[in-house]
Amino acid sequence: MNISIISVGKLKEKYLKLGIEEFTKRLSKYCKLDMIELDDEKCPENLSEKDMLIVKDKEGKKILSKIKNNSYVIALAIDGKNLSSEELADTISKLGVRGHSHITFIIGGSLGLSDEVLKRSDYKLSFSKMTFPHQMMKLILLEQVYRAFRINNNEPYHK
Ligand SMILES: C[S@@+](CC[C@H](N)C(=O)[O-])C[C@H]1O[C@@H](n2cnc3c(N)ncnc32)[C@H](O)[C@@H]1O
Questions:
Q1: InterPro entries given for it (predicted)?
Q2: Which residue among 14, 32, 42, 117 sits deepest, i.e. has the most Cβ atoms within 10 Å of its Cβ?
Q3: Pocket of ligand 1 (CB under 6 A)
């Protein structure tokens, strides 16, 4: 299975970098992982609604240019659907069975994802109604994808 994670904004915090490196290493046993980090657009505090849409749209276009044609796309969105870890594992497993050898997860920037990106997505996944910073979201996502592969391989993992 090939997994891509496209995210907007640079990873700055050292403690998150270390966690991400750790799960990247662990995941290398189960899948080919490609992490694409895109530059975010400048976003001052006092942007108008119209300018915010322009920022999201520009970031969205960059995201869309990185999605492979045949990839199954899972957008991370607060108002998406909740899955248990077992359900995410099952989703990944079923996609493999149905011949989807490539899954792309997308994490938006500080303003979220554009409508165009959400339209291209096959699934909108929420990790709760809470808002997480994009860098932390990447670490949480990697841990859950790792957990999913452990579940699918009937391998032990702390509860
Ligand atoms: C700082 S958040 C953006 C918040 C923005 N106001 C919004 O409504 O999307 C950055 C990105 O992290 C991801 N994210 C943050 N919290 C999430 C959650 N609870 N579930 C799923 N994705 C989340 C989303 O991809 C989001 O675009």
A1: Alpha/beta_knot_MTases, RlmH-like, tRNA_m1G_MTases_N
A2: 117
A3: 76-78, 107-108, 110-113, 126-128, 130-134, 137
**Cα(7) to centroid of ligand 1, in Å?**
11
Q: Which domains does the chain show, CATH number per domain?
A: 2-152 (3.40.1280.10)
Instruction: Report whether 105 contacts 37 (CB < 8 A).
Output: no
Euclidean distance between CA atoms 75 and 130, whole angstroms: 16
Q: How high is the ipTM of this complex?
A: 0.97
42-89 pLDDT, tens digit each: 888 889 999 999 999 999 999 999 999 999 999 999 999 999 999 999
Give whole-number Cα distances, 39 to 24, 48, 57, 110, in Å.
21, 21, 13, 12
